[in-house]
Amino acid sequence: MPDKWVYVTRNIPQPGLAKLAEQFNIETYQSDEAIPHDVLVSAMKGKRYDALLCMLTDQIDEEVLDAAGPQLKIVATMSVGYEHINLQECGKRNILVANTPGVSTDSVAELTATLLLMTARRVTEGVEAVKKGEWGPWKPMWLCGTELTGRVLGIYGLGRIGFNVGRRLKPFGFSKIYYTDVHEVSYAKDIDAEFVDFDGLIEKCDFICVCCNLTPQTRHMFNAEVFKRMKKGAILINTGRGGVIDHEALTEALRNGDITGAGLDVTEPEPLPPTHPLVSLPNCVILPHMGSNTWDSRNAMAEIAAKNCIAAISDQTPEGIVAA
Ligand code: DGY
Question: Entry's Gene3D superfamilies (predicted)?
Fold first, then answer.
């Protein structure tokens, strides 16, 4: 269909571009950086695109959709998260929205387990100490962390990623795994995880992994009042979305010792400025939203996003449909 056009908002891995190029004309914002919103709006006005392949940094709002025009069939995001897309406005215009579920499950689950271990065992403090020449003769109480064995693991959001985090962490010998979600799920039994409500999760668990989406319901679920009720030794890990945690409250909780540590791969805002108080706290490990940064995941994400565009333009149902 050489008369069809797809706009891609960033340089993406080759497998995705190659798939699209087999069938359509492609226009790409040739950069590794996010496209400014006004540039995206102008690009949409410039040509009549049939599909828009975007990233989680692109706000797909009314202005972009108006500029795109009525022939736009799909907004295909190269991400699992889709909170940057105005689903309601897409719905009104009969524009499909699709994401890339499944292909980053392993990469994000692996990074979640990594971050939990790094935070519990104070790995970044150790690395920093070596670099700064602070590694002196052996000391009995230096850089002591928290063992996983015998402790209680909590998973907030037992979807694909949450379940796979549980699967990877279970062999460490937790005494119990609890999870909280909107409802109980049958596959929880495969990791011997027990359903609890949010109060149960925050009061019982030594480690809590946040693996949920950002929705109006999950926004700032972890706030000052919650931190006061968590165990003092608790460690909070977030690889879901930054907005689930109130960062000001987290800063205070880590400073006051309401909880022991936090490991964040997602923050609010992103990027988190180096001057943010959380950055200088030794008990907070911060990574730059790199959960799905493996070639395996990123190639597959690009390919699925491309396939979703192809499906929609060909009047087929895309794989990762979020809203119709
Ligand atoms: C996603 O897919 O939503 C991740 O957060 C980024 O890869």
Answer: NAD(P)-binding Rossmann-like Domain (3.40.50.720)
What is d(CA 113, CA 168) in angstroms, rounded to the nearest whole number? Answer: 7
Compute CA distances 30 → 11, 60, 132, whole Å. Answer: 6, 19, 39
Q: Ligand 1 centre from 55 Cα, in Å?
A: 9
Tokens of 59: 């706000």
Decide if pLDDT at 2 tops 70.
no
Size (the chain), residues:
324
CB distance 292 to ligand 1 below 6 Å: yes
Single out the residue of 74, 133, 149, 152 nearest to residue 324, CA to CA: 74
Q: What ipTM, to 2 d.p.? A: 0.97
Determine the Cα angle at 169 with ends 163 and 173, to 5°. 130
All residues at 6 or more sequence positions from 277 whose CB lies less than 8 Å from its CB, including other chains: 251
Tracing tokens 């009969």 back to the chain, one arrives at 94
Give the confidence band of 46 by pLDDT, cuts at 50, 70, 90: confident
Residue 249 CB–ligand 1 contact under 6 Å:
no
Placement of tokens 């230096």 in the chain: 142
Whole-angstrom Cα distance, residue 86 to residue 29?
21
Q: Strand runs (DSSP E) across 117-256, as ranges?
A: 152-156, 176-180, 193-195, 207-210, 235-238
Q: Which residues are catalytic?
A: 289
Give per-residue pLDDT as tens, 274-308: 999 999 999 999 999 999 999 999 999 999 999 99
Question: What are residue 276's phi and psi, to 5 degrees?
Answer: -65, 135
Ligand 1: does its nearest atom lie under 6 Å from the Cβ of 56? Answer: yes
- For ligand 1, the distance from its centroid to the CA atom of residue 13, given in whole angstroms, is 15
